[in-house]
Amino acid sequence: MKNIVILISGGGSNMAAIVRAARDGRWRERYGAQVAAVISNRPDAAGLALARAEGIPTVVVDHREQPSREAFDARLAQEIERHQPWLVAMAGFMRILGDGFVARFAGRMVNVHPSLLPAFPGLDTHRRAIEAGCRFAGATVHRVTADLDHGPILAQAVVPILPADTPETLAERVLSQEHLIYPRAIAGLLATEG
Ligand code: GAR
């Protein structure tokens, strides 16, 4: 079975989109794939309840309970490995992971980022895009490498930035595209990689 482990920190709407796509697209029958677990670094992440409602096992590895970044990475890696992941999908996971962690899951980890990478890596992407006078923004699905928000690009979607946009209205427009391209990119990997 190709196990997909999804990492979240918050609302989990991308996670929910992947779970929906897996169900509606019959990933189990078609690709022998399943969402095996959802792991959050925050116990209060709203996405945890969504995952539980779908019958998906959830785990919390609270970064505040770990003595160091290294200890957090090690604990998280341990929880992920328990599910023998074919793919680790970061979906609004807001912790920076160390090089050792990234190396351990090299080639098996993907992320969605709310900008047209390589523009605007990091935080606060929507405000920065508006302030830079960009006419377009978007979302990127990419492989995770040691370079933050810079791995090989798997999919992108473009949206216009409208004159009246605030970071919030733009975020909403971008997020709705993330929900389309992220599951599609994962299905693409499932279809093409053994
Ligand atoms: C999404 O917009 C995602 O791209 C972003 O956080 C949001 C999470 O929403 N991720 C990052 O900024 C990571 N650098 P969700 O929890 O509803 O999926």
UniProtKB/TrEMBL annotation:
<dbReference type="InterPro" id="IPR004607">
    <property type="entry name" value="GART"/>
</dbReference>
<feature type="domain" description="Formyl transferase N-terminal">
    <location>
        <begin position="2"/>
        <end position="186"/>
    </location>
</feature>
<dbReference type="InterPro" id="IPR036477">
    <property type="entry name" value="Formyl_transf_N_sf"/>
</dbReference>
<dbReference type="InterPro" id="IPR001555">
    <property type="entry name" value="GART_AS"/>
</dbReference>
<comment type="similarity">
    <text>Belongs to the GART family.</text>
</comment>
<feature type="binding site">
    <location>
        <position position="69"/>
    </location>
    <ligand>
        <name>(6R)-10-formyltetrahydrofolate</name>
    </ligand>
</feature>
<feature type="active site" description="Proton donor">
    <location>
        <position position="113"/>
    </location>
</feature>
<feature type="site" description="Raises pKa of active site His">
    <location>
        <position position="149"/>
    </location>
</feature>
<comment type="pathway">
    <text>Purine metabolism; IMP biosynthesis via de novo pathway; N(2)-formyl-N(1)-(5-phospho-D-ribosyl)glycinamide from N(1)-(5-phospho-D-ribosyl)glycinamide (10-formyl THF route): step 1/1.</text>
</comment>
<dbReference type="GO" id="GO:0004644">
    <property type="term" value="F:phosphoribosylglycinamide formyltransferase activity"/>
</dbReference>
<keyword id="KW-0808">Transferase</keyword>
<keyword id="KW-0658">Purine biosynthesis</keyword>
<protein>
    <recommendedName>
        <fullName>Phosphoribosylglycinamide formyltransferase</fullName>
        <ecNumber>2.1.2.2</ecNumber>
    </recommendedName>
</protein>
<feature type="binding site">
    <location>
        <begin position="94"/>
        <end position="97"/>
    </location>
    <ligand>
        <name>(6R)-10-formyltetrahydrofolate</name>
    </ligand>
</feature>
<dbReference type="Pfam" id="PF00551">
    <property type="entry name" value="Formyl_trans_N"/>
</dbReference>
<dbReference type="InterPro" id="IPR002376">
    <property type="entry name" value="Formyl_transf_N"/>
</dbReference>
<comment type="function">
    <text>Catalyzes the transfer of a formyl group from 10-formyltetrahydrofolate to 5-phospho-ribosyl-glycinamide (GAR), producing 5-phospho-ribosyl-N-formylglycinamide (FGAR) and tetrahydrofolate.</text>
</comment>
<feature type="binding site">
    <location>
        <begin position="12"/>
        <end position="14"/>
    </location>
    <ligand>
        <name>N(1)-(5-phospho-beta-D-ribosyl)glycinamide</name>
    </ligand>
</feature>
<feature type="binding site">
    <location>
        <position position="111"/>
    </location>
    <ligand>
        <name>(6R)-10-formyltetrahydrofolate</name>
    </ligand>
</feature>
